[in-house]
Amino acid sequence: MEHMRSKIGSQKIILSDVDSTNNFAAKLINDGSIGHGSVIMAENQSNGRGQQGSLWQSDPHLNLLFSLVLSSRELHKINPICINWYVSICIIDFMKRKNLNAQIKWPNDILIGIKKVSGILIENKFVGSTLKHSIIGVGINVNQTDFNELNATSMKLHTSINYSIVDLLDDFIFCLCENEHLLFSLKHDDLKEKYLDSLDGLGELRNFKKDSGSFKAQIRGVDDIGRLILQADGQQFLFQNKEIQFL
Fold first, then answer.
1. Any idea where the domains of the chain sit in the sequence?
2. Mean pLDDT computed over every residue of the chain
3. Exposure pattern of 37-50 as b/e (b: 16+ CB <10 Å)?
4. If phi over 0 gives left and psi between -120 and 50 gives alpha, with beta otherwise, what is residue 166?
5. Residues in the chain with pLDDT < 70?
6. DSSP secondary structure of the chain
7. CA 195, CA 193: separation in Å to the nearest integer?
8. Residue range 64-107, pLDDT digits in tens
9. What's the first-to-final CA gap in the chain, in angstroms?
10. Class of 205-246 in CATH
11. Which residues, including other chains, have CB under 8 Å from residue 117's CB and lie 6 or more apart?
């Protein structure tokens, strides 16, 4: 798998300003000008996007904002949820290397304590049922220290270090390369195990909300398509991302 690992980060594009690195990556893929492993970083995003149509708010030049393109010929063999597990554990690995203890809030928010330090937006392109490429947008709060009313934090708030964003990008690419074999060698059970090792609240009772009201349940894990497994009143329930909220 060495030839695959070497491709991540082999093409880096650094932009001063863009609406969204995911949008920019999609245009370049359509033009045929970037391929597997390409990374697009922006010093500022004017319209960065988060999960479920939310905006990713980031002050210019203070945070790590980038997109990774996966378009390997082997991509069609991969269960799409494994891409989420892969990138999530890469962020956890990256944080550990910076002496920061982070956890994954299902499905892919990254927390330090109870506050969000990073988020992921994955946009997959299918032709029929075949996964052709995946664009993974990652935002990591790095040097920003003022988040207004947002429940957010940053690396600097925990370490008092003023980081070089470009150097952090290289450090993160290293983590992507180190863990890529878990994705492309189809070691999906290993990926899932690593994801669960860092899943916030695993085995604990937590409060949730769904359309019919609020309830308390124990987090039991995730299934093989990424649904959250909850246990309440002796029964187990499965939930997709948009079907439930944490309280």
1. 2-197, 205-246
2. 93
3. bbbbbbbbbeebbb
4. alpha
5. 1-6, 48-56
6. -HHHHTTTTSSEEEES-BS-HHHHHHHHHHHT---TT-EEEES-BSS-B-GGG-B----TTSSEEEEEEE--TTGGGS-THHHHHHHHHHHHHHHHHTT---EEETTTEEEETTEEEEEEEEEEEEETTEEEEEEEEEEE--S----TTSSB--HHHHH-----HHHHHHHHHHHHHHHHHHHHTT-HHHHHHHHHHTBTTBTSEEEEEETTEEEEEEEEEE-TT-PEEEEETTEEEEE-GGG-EE-
7. 5
8. 999 999 999 999 999 999 999 999 999 999 999 999 999 999 99
9. 42
10. mainly beta
11. 95, 100, 102, 110, 111, 140, 141, 152, 153, 154, 155
At residue 4, the pLDDT reads 44
The whole-number pLDDT of residue 148 equals: 85
Query: How many CA atoms, within 13 angstroms, populate the side-chain half-sphere of residue 43?
Result: 7
Please give the Cα distance from 107 to 119 (Å, whole number): 10
In 10 A of CB 129, how many CB atoms?
Answer: 6
Q: What is the pLDDT of residue 2?
A: 42
Q: Which CATH superfamily is domain 2-197 in?
A: Bira Bifunctional Protein; Domain 2 (3.30.930.10)
